[in-house]
Structures are given as C-alpha cells and as structure tokens.
Amino acid sequence: MKGTKGKMLAMLLLALLTATACVGPRGPQGPQGPQGEPGEGTNWKIINLTVPANAWVEYADNNNQNNYYRALFDVPEINDFIYNSGLVICYHEVNNSQIILPYVRHNQDQDGNYWTTTVDFDYAVGSVAIYVTHSDFADDPPGEMNFRLVLMW
Q1: What pLDDT sits at residue 137?
Q2: Could you give the CA distance from residue 109 to residue 111 in angstroms, rounded to a whole number?
C-alpha cells in the first residue's frame, strides 16, 4: 500500500508540473496588442556641422597670448532635458573617419619644429562651441573642418 500511494503522489505531482508549465507564469498568451507610445530610453539625433575656414574666430588671454580658435553653433536641439539628463558627443570627421573629441595630434614641420594640435568642444543649452588650440600658440587658423554631433537621451 505504501508503494502505491507514493507512486500516485509522484504521478499527481508530475501532472501538476506539466499543466502549469504549459500555461506559463502570466497565464495563456493571446494576440499581440498595438504598439505603445515611445518611452524614455535610447533616443538620438545626429547633427552635421561644418566650420568654413573663414568662420574660425581667434581668441587670446588679457596679455594677447595663449591664443586659440573657436567656432560657435546654435543648436536648439540641446534643451534643458538633454543638458541635464542626456549625452552630447562630438566627432571630428577626417578622411572618412570619425575621431571623438578631444582630438589631439602631434605635428612636426620640415624644419624639425614640434607642436600639438588639440580640437575640443563644450556645450550649453542651445549651443556648441568647438575649439582648436596649437601648443606653440602660433597664429595659424584652421581650415575648413567637419564635425558630427550626437545627442542622446
């Protein structure tokens, strides 16, 4: 008698497990409903920026030294929400490549002079500024440059 009750209990337990495995934790599945509203998550916008050679503005400190070049863009897409909770990344496009800013390159001319060029950026609500600085602070304005701004929120 003892063996029969154990077998019956095991079969009942197996039947119960099989039945609940077919239904799933949320019950029977029906047809998929309509697409919901987009929520917060990964949203992005890409903005291409070009700085013509004549658009760079030279700045210097109060002693007229330590010069750098700046290009300023109005970017109304950078709103309070993106500024406070999003992400802004800028790439410099060179020879079909994208180089994330800051971009630092070491240079040497034919006379053996060395210097470094740094391209960086900052942003505020509604604007982006791109900077070019030469480590020797030479009066050498950059040429036309292309950038790719990526906004994510």
Answers
A1: 82
A2: 5
Sequence-distant (6+) residues with CB within 8 A of 42 are 152
Distance CA 117, CA 101 (A): 12
User: Alpha helix locations (H) across the chain?
Assistant: 2-23, 80-85
Please tell me which residue, 22 or 106, carries the higher pLDDT value. Answer: 106
- Give the whole-angstrom CA distance, residue 49 versus residue 92: 10
Q: Say yes or no to pLDDT of 11 above 70.
A: no
CA nearest 131: which of 76, 46, 73?
73
Cα separation, 21 vs 32, in Å, equals: 21
List the beta bridge partners of residue 98.
93
Mean pLDDT over 117-123 rounds to 98
Q: What element of type H or E holds 45? A: strand 44-51
Of 110, 106, 90, the C-alpha closest to 98 is: 90
Q: Two tokens at 22?
A: 């077919």
Question: Token pair of 146, please?
Answer: 């292309």
